[in-house]
TrEMBL record:
Gene3D superfamilies registered for this protein in UniProt: Zn peptidases
Matching InterPro entries: Bact_exopeptidase_dim_dom, Peptidase_M20/M20A_hydrolases, Peptidase_M20_dimer
Pfam family, one: M20_dimer
Ranges of residues in domain Peptidase M20 dimerisation: 46-135
Single GO MF annotation: dipeptidase activity
Taxonomy, superkingdom: Bacteria
Name assigned to this protein: M20 family metallopeptidase
A GO CC term assigned to this protein in UniProt: cytoplasm
Coiled coil regions in record: none
Any GO BP: folic acid catabolic process
């Protein structure tokens, strides 16, 4: 609950909570059954523009922070064409002034930059910073940037864990199980955990019809009969995976071997 934005698992990973953990298993509610997969890294960046107030009838005496924000917003959107596949740029004008007849001395933009790996998400964010800096200089304002929320790592897939969870879901009578998702769109703080130990974030269906995630409708679904049934299935699924790993050291060794090899490729 209330797990968005602040990255609780990131703080736990940085504090060493998962350093001696063998495997991390979790399931996320949704409108499908699945074994999870990749997630995008996320780099959140706030742009704050500072200008000079003036009355709208004498705009030449001011410097519009809002103009700088709007021009930056447009130019950053144009950057979308020139980024790698599966890279996403989301932004809003979080502050655009308080009165229409006053040239705003302050304006701000909040952005998320998502990409298949953290280094590239940060690289795209830095390109956006250069855009904002050049526009601010051109219109007589200044800009400051800051990381305003918790950045997220991408998620490392462990195919052996995905195979095990698929088997357990099938044993529990689930048939509509989606395979590993190779192409990421969303982001999660589970990514930080996946760089510390073998990790899986599966999905369990708790609504028959499609429901938007993180919505009032999804909250309602969690306490519906389907939601309660899904909770039990999810708990049973990951418990059975854990049991097999405890009973079969050779299977656990496969999971660990894959993790080591994958991280070696990713981190060099």
């Amino acid at each position: 609950p209330a797990e968005e934005n602040f990255g609780g698992k990131v703080s736990m990973a940085e504090a060493g909570v998962f350093d001696n953990v063998d495997v991390a298993l979790m399931v996320h509610p949704g409108t499908k059954n699945g074994v999870g997969g990749r997630s995008n890294a996320l780099y959140p960046l706030k742009f704050e523009f500072f200008g000079k107030n003036a009355h709208a009838c004498r705009p030449s005496e001011g410097a519009s922070a809002l103009d700088a924000a709007v021009m930056s917003f447009v130019q950053i959107n144009l950057l979308r064409q020139f980024v790698a596949p599966h890279t996403y740029i989301h932004g809003v004008i979080s502050d655009g002034g308080k009165a229409a007849n006053v040239i705003p001395a302050y304006a701000s933009l909040d952005y998320y930059f998502r990409a298949p790996n953290f280094a590239y998400a940060k690289e795209v964010a830095q390109k956006a910073e250069k855009i904002a800096e050049s526009i601010a200089m051109a219109n007589g304002t200044t800009v400051e940037t800051s990381v305003y929320e918790c950045p997220y790592e991408d998620t490392v897939i462990n195919y052996k864990l995905a195979e095990l969870l698929t088997e357990k879901y099938q044993e529990l009578g689930l048939t509509d199980i989606e395979p590993v998702d190779e192409v990421a769109t969303g982001s999660t703080d589970v990514g930080a955990v996946s760089y510390k130990c073998p990790t899986i974030q599966g999905y369990i269906k708790i609504a028959e019809d499609w429901v938007q995630g993180h919505s009032k409708e999804m909250a309602d679904a969690t306490i519906s009969p389907a939601g309660k049934a899904g909770l039990i299935k999810a708990a049973q699924g990951i418990a059975l995976v854990a049991l097999q790993l405890l009973e079969e050291p050779e299977t656990f060794a496969e999971v660990q071997k894959e993790q080591t090899e994958t991280l070696s490729k990713l981190l060099g």
